[in-house]
Amino acid sequence: MNKLVRRYRSLPIRARLSMLVAAAVAFAVAAVSVTCWFIVQGKLYDQIDAELDKSLRIGGAIQEQAVNAINDCTQTPSEENPRFGPRNTYFQVVLENGTPCVLEFSAGTVKVTQTDKDVVNATERTRAIYHNSTDSDGNDVRVIAQPVSFTNAQTGETSNAAILAALPLKGTQSTLNDLALILLLVSGIGVVGAGAAGLAVARAGLRPVDKLTEAVEHVARTEDLGIRIPVEEESEDEVARLSRSFNSMTSALANSRELQQQLIADAGHELRTPLTSLRTNIELLTRSEETGRPIPAEDRKALLASVKAQMTELASLIGDLQELSRSESGQQGGRHLQVVDFQETVEAALRRARLRGPELTITADLQPWYVRSEPSALERAIVNILDNAVKFSPEGGTIEVALDTGVLTVRDHGPGIPADELPHVFDRFWRSPSARALPGSGLGLSIVARTVQQAGGEVSLSRAEGGGTVATVRLPGAATAPPDAS
């Protein structure tokens, strides 16, 4: 059985569909055919039973002949032409001891069965019983057994008996056999036709799946993510949904590849500048050592300081790239999400910001708020926003931080962002022309945007009234921690 199941599962879908359709049609045709055969059999038997019932109600002649047969019991019918009923009808009487007495115009002798004996001894003397039996030659017959009572002419005693009338079933069985053969042929043709129709329907229905399979194989072979499967806009069936899902998947993969390639290209461009500068400084130091011509102490100190700053910038850029690529992969958007105390996260970021801008005044008005995010990523995003505020605030300036019902605002009093630059502030590696002389990789706000989006929130930068910039972060959450918070 398991082997058959494995072989069935190894077949193509269209073959399995054809087999299922053929099996379903075969079951339905078989059920209809069997039902039809039994209905016809019942109708034919009803006709025979009606003829048998009529043959026992011809009149008193049957009763007279039955009494004569009992008084002169014989098991051999007369060879003369019958006076009553057709020659193919059997007539006989069954006595209490089971002895059959054949009427003179009977077509033969019917074997006495237990059913006939039960009719003889039945307490209800008016109920006739229909059943199948055989004659003395073994031919099948349909029998009606009618209980009767008679008085022995010689002894005067009253005894029970049963009058039997029977008709041969040869013609009925031949009709039923012919019907069974016809139904079998029709069923076979129907099953074969259903299988062929099922195969045709399966091929037509699976044609879109074949196209989808070809598209997937093409993508696997060529890595061409630009392929699309045509789908009718009005269609809402499963295949159309699958095709739309495939098109969405390939589109998302193509966008992801494009973003990845763009990230690599941008990263290579940004890494080239510090690496070139670092290599130049190191070559100067190496040449000084090789030629024995020492660099003046002040120049050497400045050169080493430049090398250190470039290494720091390079390390920061690599860290930002790692953080951005981790965000792009979606890891922190699924498995690592947890309930985070937003107020506590902002306070931790404020402590780091105050260390980086000790000459600035940072005020904070924070209300409790709980969100779902990745803790370290959320803190890094808030630190990036505060770093920008610290970087662009004038010496001795003030930074105002507020958190109320999930809305975090960071306002500085720096030069602000020009209106034409606001649409680009969250682009990767984008830096304002006025900020290119300052340290940074241009990835900070990109990381902020990605982290806030994965937490289900929004972030924006706008010009503040009176000068400066306002950074606004909105995160969904609640003022109290949910019961499942760990």
What is this entry, summarized?
With 486 residues, the chain is of the alpha+beta class. It contains 10 helices and 12 strands.
Task: For this entry, give a set of tags.
486 residues; Beta-Lactamase; Helix Hairpins; five-stranded mixed beta sheet; 10 helices; 12 strands; 15% strand; rod-shaped
Describe this structure in words.
This protein has helices at residues 2-9, 13-55, 60-71, 114-120, 170-222, 238-291, 297-328, 342-356, 375-392, 444-454, and strands at residues 90-94, 100-102, 129-134, 140-151, 158-168, 338-341, 361-366, 370-373, 398-404, 407-411, 458-463, 469-474. With 486 residues, the chain is of the alpha+beta class. The chain has 4 domains: 11-55 and 172-224, no CATH class; 59-168, 2-Layer Sandwich (Beta-Lactamase), CATH 3.30.450; 238-327, Helix Hairpins (Orthogonal Bundle), CATH 1.10.287.130; 334-474, Heat Shock Protein 90 (2-Layer Sandwich). The chain has a 5-stranded antiparallel sheet with strand order 2-1-5-4-3, with helices on both faces. The protein has a 5-stranded mixed sheet with strand order 7-9-10-12-11. A hairpin with a 5-residue loop joins β11 (458-463) and β12 (469-474). α2 (13-55) packs antiparallel against α5, α5 packs parallel to α6 (238-291) and α8 runs parallel beside α9. The protein is rod-shaped, with a radius of gyration of 51 Å. The two termini are 51 Å apart. The relative contact order is 0.07. Residues 81-85 and 330-335 have low confidence and may be disordered.
